[in-house]
UniProtKB/TrEMBL annotation:
It comes from the Eukaryota. HAMAP family: PsiMP_glycosidase (MF_01876). SUPFAM superfamilies: Indigoidine synthase A-like. GO terms for molecular function: hydrolase activity, acting on glycosyl bonds; metal ion binding; pseudouridylate synthase activity. PANTHER family: CARBOHYDRATE KINASE PFKB DOMAIN-CONTAINING PROTEIN, ZGC:136858. Keywords: Glycosidase, Hydrolase, Lyase, Manganese, Metal-binding. The keyword Nucleotide-binding does not apply. GO terms for cellular component: cytoplasm. It comes from Vitis rotundifolia. This is Pseudouridine-5'-phosphate glycosidase. The keyword Lyase applies. Pfam families: Indigoidine_A.
Amino acid sequence: MTSSALSRLSNINRHLKPTVSHSCDSDGATGMPVKISPEVSNALSCGRAVVALESTIISHGMPYPRNLETAKEVEAIVRTNGAVPATVAILDGIPCIGLSIEQLERLANLGTKAQKAARRDIAHIVATRGNGATTVSATMVFASMVGIPVFVTGGIGGVHRHGENTMDISSDLTELGRTPVAVISAGVKSILDIPRTLEYLETQGVCVAAYKTNEFPAFFTEKSGSKVHCRVDTPEDCAQLIDANIKLKLGTGILIAVPIPKEHAASGSLIESAIQIALKEARDKNIIGNAETPFLLARVSELTGGASLASNIALVKNNAALGAKISVALAQLRESCNTGDAQSVS
């Protein structure tokens, strides 16, 4: 058997392993720790490009039916650019990697009735057979579990403003420090403390790269005033970076920050003003913890007449297109390495 065939067999075994039964339901029926859709499972087994997608943006990011429309559009963009979308959620206590149209519709209709699920919430939601919409940290956990190296989101969480006093720091940052998945985002949400977030990521040993720029983007706007030490200019550059991180077994994720397209960037001063108002309202109403970000984003959208929501959707779509291209480049890189190995053996 050639080296290439052995590599492919190993790839198949690695991706099918997570679906092996490990638990039993109360009626004695065998259950699965995770459920991978046939489309995603087949793509992983064949070494094709797959892009993980979070589901909090569906349940908590915008109202129905716009959330469902956006979810379908984002998945379509991933497919158009050559990759298979794998939206992640927990439904009836089962972590699902790759959702059907019916499951997307169910999640969109559930809205905020689905629990916002970070890493800490996974076991509880599964144990109680609940429904959870995965945040960045939880999506990274499941993507890594089944071998999906690229994950697309809008923006990650970070250190909240005044976080030096409140210690309100998103688990997204610690997840990036311990889970080897590349996260494609529009940087850090501008409602957060961006300089402190970057400092925290540095402490976690996370490589932060900016796409076609030397400055870290601020979610709604292209610039934050904070520089990065790593710049990537093509999907192939990103693939090389991800491949090196995985081969070196550094054990950390990579954050690839992509500026929002110029034609969709809302006025930075308008949004910053709205953020200050929303932050004060959140403090006055004692809205803290994981309830704060959804409140702030919704309030900022109201204050900006929907401009921030339109920008949010535009940047997610932009990230999805680039994330798919990166995933395709990474799959091609791995295939060329396998081919080279086979030729050297023969």
